[in-house]
Specification:
This protein is α+β, with helices and mostly antiparallel strands. It contains eight helices and four strands; from the N terminus they run ααβαααβαβαβα. The protein has helices spanning 3-9, 23-33, 52-67, 84-101, 108-119, 140-159, 174-181, 214-217, and strands at 45-51, 126-133, 163-166, 187-196. It binds flavin mononucleotide.
């Protein structure tokens, strides 16, 4: 695939075929992803690639604890609730997804079901948990580097026909993730990425999220044209 086809074609995938993804293919994707730049080439990240019974245990534990009202214990800062333009963009993509899925605004059950799917990693056959070395926790470069490798990963996967969604919901309950993914204490859990073969019949997979124009995001200084 050409670069533009990967970048412009990739969408977050939230419905997967129940078909295994070969380990060699995941290794190929990770090899490509790890070409991402990192601060001083420190490569502070680790990938915990989880499937089978371990992933099912994470899904179950995450869901049960959230349903029981146990406060989320993610290991990254989330800041304040989105407001203004950020909130508008958040609501915008949610509307696109709910519209594709036929979920009405006042249908609380269907909305709750959608949230639960997120806690279950959208029932993907594989979940990649990105962690980083705890001794680098004081540097914002570390989070930046994890983001860079995550972006490279989702695009590399797409270039091989594999769908992904970066998913903060899948790691709401950090002790569950730590236990079943066997994450050592000297690593911090940054993010999870659900991964698998896209289900082309799953309506939300067709959603193309919007982007603001470059003219709104970029300022050019010192250019004549
Ligand atoms: C840091 C991060 C966290 C995310 N967490 C979730 C999530 O919890 N649930 C979800 O459905 N999508 C999640 N997403 C996916 C975004 O909603 C998605 O990337 C965005 O709406 C743009 O859509 P696109 O990926 O299809 O281009 C997350 C993405 C990022 C980068």
């Amino acid at each position: 695939m050409h670069y533009d086809d990967v970048i412009l074609g990739r969408r977050s995938i939230r419905g997967y075929l129940p078909k295994p993804v070969p380990r060699a293919l995941i290794e190929e994707v990770l090899t490509l992803a790890m070409r991402a730049p990192s601060s001083m080439n420190t490569q502070p990240y680790h990938f915990h690639v989880v499937g089978g019974a371990a992933l099912d245990a994470i899904r179950a534990g995450n869901t049960q604890r959230m349903a029981a009202g146990i406060p989320q214990s993610r290991e990254f800062r989330t800041g304040e609730a989105f407001a203004g333009a950020h909130r508008e963009r958040q609501v915008g993509v949610a509307k696109q997804l709910f519209s594709a899925m036929g979920i009405a605004r006042d249908d609380k059950d269907a909305r709750q079901d959608w949230v639960m799917r997120g806690f279950r990693q959208f029932d993907a056959p594989v979940c990649v948990i990105i962690t980083y070395d705890r001794d680098l926790a004081g540097s914002d470069d570390t989070a930046f580097d994890c983001g860079a490798v995550a972006t490279a990963l989702v695009n590399a996967a797409w270039s091989r026909g594999i769908g992904t969604v970066i998913n903060s919901q899948g790691i709401m309950q950090s002790p569950v993730v730590r236990e079943h993914a066997r994450i050592p204490d000297d690593q911090v859990i940054m993010k999870s990425i659900a991964l698998g073969w896209p289900d082309e019949d799953f309506p939300a997979n067709a959603v193309v999220s919007e982007r603001r124009p470059v003219a709104e995001a970029a300022m050019f200084i010192g250019f004549d044209d």
